[in-house]
Amino acid sequence: MVPFRILSAVLAGVGRATWVVHTLRARARERLSTRRRAPAYSGDVHITLLSDPAVPGANEDAGGVLGEVAVMLDGAGLPQRFRAGCRHSVAWYSHSLAAHLLTRAQDPATELGAALAGAIADVRELHEQECDLAAGSPSATVVTVRRVGEHLEHLVLSDSSLLLRGRDGEVVRVTDLRIDEVVATERTAEAIEARRNVPGGFWVARHEEEAAEQALVGRTPLAMLASAHLVSDGITRAIDLLGRHDEASLVQALTVDPVEVIAELRAGERALPPQARPRKLHDDATVLTLLP
Question: How many separate domains does the chain show?
Fold first, then answer.
């Protein structure tokens, strides 16, 4: 198995980024101070990970790579009353689930849905004895991909997105819109919450293993792919909220300079008139890009 090199960036103030290169199974770490990506190749795969929290030090997104598997999770920032049965934070849940999913998905004979179900069970076991999960617990959206032979397998649960750019330039967005359909028909937060992880509602990773069965799954020949981007809905705000991009232009921008995408996104959010602002002006924004 070829070790991946991971290039991650964290915004350190408006318009400035600090890039840190991590090489798995290697001793050296190189720190760069530049807006531009430094090359980080391993074999024929180039991976970048960028996550910018809405609130410094409180990132509820999680992303990572292990072996042939990459994951991106977006913790659901619910009001406390909807997760009152659990003392753990949303960040604890999303980060814990990401780690267990990375481990569970290592065996290519295990389907990604089964790996997610197992990871959900793993995290539930970590706190079900001390928390009343039936009274409300943290949850997260999930995007994961895995390279198996000549294909890239994928799984998407809830409204984070996988953006697949073909070598012909076409971009396919894989996302689960059931939560948007529920929000469009329900009038109150309580009514929306009542339809979480129930038939006819919308599904996220929480403590129910059966949620994994609701995920969108598929596979794409690597020979057809130019890039794959695992993004939280904090990133796709550039399309859905601000209208500054479509899928194709967002993929191009993320490939060239994801730091600039984040900077423009934050500026666009701040420029929204009060009547157009969402409940959270800023959201955690994470993108994990693979260039086969």
Answer: 1
Question: Which range marks the domain in which residue 239 is found?
Answer: 5-291
Angle at 179 between CA 176 and CA 182, to 5 degrees: 135
Three-state DSSP at 65 gives strand
Between 106 and 16, residue with greater pLDDT: 106
- Pick from 161, 8, 14, 132: which is nearest to 73 by CA? 161
- Distance of alpha carbon 104 from alpha carbon 99, whole angstroms: 9
CB atoms within 10 A of CB 287: 26
Q: How far apart are CA 197 and CA 174, in angstroms?
A: 20
Residues in Cβ contact with 121 at an 8 Å cutoff, skipping those fewer than 6 apart: 209
Does residue 233 or residue 78 have the better pLDDT?
A: 233
Q: 132-141, 157-166, 204-213 — which is least confidently predicted?
A: 132-141
Q: CB under 8 Å to 75, separation ≥6 — which residues?
A: 60, 61, 62, 90, 91, 93, 94, 138, 139, 140, 284
Which pLDDT band holds residue 77 (cuts at 50, 70, 90)?
confident
Identify the CA nearest to 154 among candidates 95, 69, 64, 93. 69
Tokens matching residue 154: 């994928």
Max distance between CA atoms of the chain, in angstroms, equals 54
- Domain containing residue 41: CATH number: 3.60.40.10
Predicted confidence (pLDDT) at residue 32 exceeds the cutoff of 70: no
| C-alpha distance across the termini of the chain, in Å | 15
